[in-house]
Design goal:
Helix content is about 0%, strand content about 40%. The protein contains 1 helix and 40 strands.
Length: about 525
């Protein structure tokens, strides 16, 4: 027990010695002893120490104050280098954790293997690197079905390093550290692969920059749920943003007799993970919604799936209302382009029979505008001249101008929607000149720190530069990636059948975008020949 008073001890424990010493060869014992500078917290030991390559029977760990004994319950392989890994979960009695992970090695043969594989896991603060030494051709396709030979949690900043590796071919992936050391279930676990087909340790003993992108969602878009809303209208929710990936030919809706329905699909204006559908007829019974692969065998953005939905002919008796804009909502406007006002209704509108003769007013003065229906739920209003900043507007919608498909329209003869405009938003722009010719599928992704919704993407322009305009002011991360399957996102690879990830590179510095400022990056070194 520490004496009372004085400054709090925040000095992390350190490893003073090991028995046998680090890099001992011809070892034939049955236990290892670790000696630390301070008394260790006993409860932190269990999840802090591992032996690589993994053994069939886990060793027994014995706590002895400043010492920890590792007793092998399984016989050691001949001519094998073993690595003791102590991760940063190990802490002293005051719960001060190791400053960094520890690795040391011993060998049952007459040499210590000196190969290494190191890199960084991106897009995760809890990533863990899993490494397999590939035994033969069959193992190269089924390796992930067995526990990894080597497992290591990345540091807080994502870095990892496997040391003392023997020559051979390896395959590596990143996964959340809660699954570290387990066989991989590709259907249930998120994982990321490296962009090389395999990692060879032969002439080159030390492989660096083996970087891996660990996705926070599966690469392919999955259908999560579907529901009937009213009449012949329903919607489908997907696992991620559809962006420009949606193709109606990859989505079928079948009636109970397996006939294919004629369907109108459209993406929800304020939620691009959701697709609305309107069937060609009212039915009281089940439908089946199916996502499928492309008929030509090309890359599909959707995972095949099927959902059964019960439709009905019931119609909601509540009046149609305006979902957005809300009363006195502020419209963010731009000095250099006219931002549309989007009016979204709570139920499907019969566009063909609606007159759409609204009136737009600023301080009781009529404003000329154009109107365009986006889909049966949303209409776009564009003034012929740009909005005035910091001004009050009204849009009036006559009851006779809108024809709902199912419900009655609002009670009043005219619906008044007051809204206001913001100051003109200010933007910056970014121009990147890579300095040489690159593959046409090289793309960039610019992500604002602290705001996941601000993401910008671009491909190479005809002048072989990247240009992004209308960027909000702030700090950004810049990633380059080789979009081989042209789905406008980084692919983290597939285990079955094995397909490496797409190559990527993070620019080492954060990008600062300032309003009314054009930032240029010249001669960016990507570290890859295309």
């Amino acid at each position: 027990m520490s004496p009372p008073g004085g400054a709090k001890d925040e000095t992390p424990p350190t490893l003073i010695s090991t028995i046998p010493p680090n890099k001992t060869t011809n070892y034939d014992g049955d236990q290892i002893e670790l000696v630390f500078s301070e008394y260790i917290e006993e409860n932190s030991i269990k999840n802090s120490i591992s032996i690589l390559p993994n053994m069939k029977k886990e060793p027994t760990l014995k706590y002895k104050g400043k010492k920890i004994q590792i007793i092998f319950e399984d016989s050691l392989l001949k001519n094998q280098t073993y690595i003791i890994v102590v991760n940063r979960n190990l802490c002293d009695e005051r719960n001060v954790k190791l400053a960094q992970g520890i690795q040391f090695a011993f060998s049952t043969g007459n040499k210590i293997d000196d190969g290494s594989i190191s890199g960084k896991i991106y897009n995760s603060k809890t990533g863990s690197a899993q490494l397999w030494k590939i035994a033969d051709k069959d193992d190269s396709t089924k390796f992930y079905g067995r526990i990894p030979d080597y497992s290591m949690d990345a540091s807080d900043s994502g870095y990892y390093k496997f040391q003392f590796l023997s020559p051979g071919n390896y395959r590596i992936l990143a996964i959340d550290n809660s699954f570290s050391g387990l066989a991989i279930d590709p259907e249930k676990m998120l994982y990321g692969l490296h962009c090389d087909n395999s990692i060879q340790l032969k002439q080159i003993h030390n492989r660096k920059n083996i970087n891996i992108y660990l996705p926070d969602k599966k690469n392919k878009i999955q259908m999560l749920q579907a529901q009937w809303v009213e009449g012949s209208w329903g919607n489908i929710t997907f696992s991620k943003s559809l962006e420009d990936h949606f193709r109606s030919d990859l989505l079928d809706i079948l009636y109970e007799d397996s006939t294919k329905a004629k369907v109108m699909f459209f993406i929800e204006h304020k939620d691009d993970k959701k697709i609305n559908f309107i069937l060609d007829s009212l039915i009281n019974g089940p439908i089946v919604i199916k996502t499928k692969n492309q008929d030509d065998g090309g890359y599909s953005h959707f995972s095949p799936g099927k959902i059964r939905v019960m439709m009905d002919t019931i119609v909601d008796t509540t009046k149609v209302s305006i979902v957005s804009p809300k009363k006195n909502e502020e419209l963010k406007i731009d000095e250099h382009k006219i931002v549309p006002l989007i009016i979204t209704f709570s139920s499907i509108i019969d566009i063909k029979n609606s007159k759409s003769n609204f009136s737009l007013l600023q301080d009781s003065i009529n404003v000329e505008y154009d109107v365009e229906w986006i889909d049966p739920l949303s209409v776009k209003i564009l003034p012929k001249e740009n909005w005035n900043p910091k001004s009050d507007y009204n849009i009036n919608i006559s009851k006779k101008s809108i024809v709902p498909s199912y419900r009655e329209f609002f009670k009043d003869s005219v619906l008044h929607i007051p809204f206001k405009t913001s100051e003109y938003l200010r933007y910056g722009s970014l121009i990147i000149d890579p300095g040489k010719s690159f593959s046409k599928n090289l793309k960039i992704k610019l992500s604002m720190l602290g705001n996941k919704s601000n993401v910008y993407k671009s491909g190479l322009n005809s002048d072989l530069t990247f240009k992004l305009d209308y960027l909000s002011e702030g700090q950004y991360l810049l990633m380059f990636f080789q979009d081989m399957n042209e789905d406008n996102q980084i692919s983290s690879g597939v285990l079955d059948p094995y397909q490496p990830s797409e190559w990527f590179y993070y620019y080492p510095d954060t990008i600062k975008i300032r309003s009314n400022w054009e930032l240029e990056l010249d001669q960016v070194t990507l570290g890859k020949e295309f």
